[in-house]
Amino acid sequence: QVQVVESGGGWVQPGGSLRLACAASENIAYMFRVDWYRQTPGKQRELVAIVGRDGSTKYADSVKGRFIVSSDNAKNTAYLQMNNLNPEDTATYYCALTEIIGTTQYEHWGQGTQVTVSS
User: Fold this and answer.
1) Mean pLDDT over residues 16-42, rounded?
2) pLDDT for residue 64 is more than 90
3) Predicted pLDDT of residue 29
4) Cβ distance 8 to 22 under 8 Å?
5) Residues contacting residue 5 through CB under 8 Å, at least 6 positions apart
6) Contact (Cβ atoms closer than 8 angstroms) between residue 86 and residue 14
7) Which residues contact 101 (CB under 8 A, 6 or more apart)?
8) Per-residue b/e over 70-101, b at no fewer than 16 CB within 10 Å?
């Protein structure tokens, strides 16, 4: 079982930046992709960003141009750089690693890290 730990959350004022990290217990280069999600109470979970094994990236429209997703295989860590944050970005952020072994797909989730944007 791959262990996943998010970190880097906290409180920031509107317009500020945070960088979230998603550390994996195994070689992240073996993962098919890394997804970043966020969720607030009473709302549906939102897929925010994806980084594929090939380095390709995708973003939700709500964060496009402000967030940057990346991965560092040497550190077995993926990152979500969040810039120009606004109160609507307040949420618990999760990363999910998708691993494919043969024809079976596995998802490995972290416990989440809270991001609060307020003045």
Assistant:
1) 94
2) yes
3) 84
4) no
5) 22, 23, 110, 111
6) yes
7) none
8) ebeeeebbbbbebeebeeebbbbbbbbbbbee
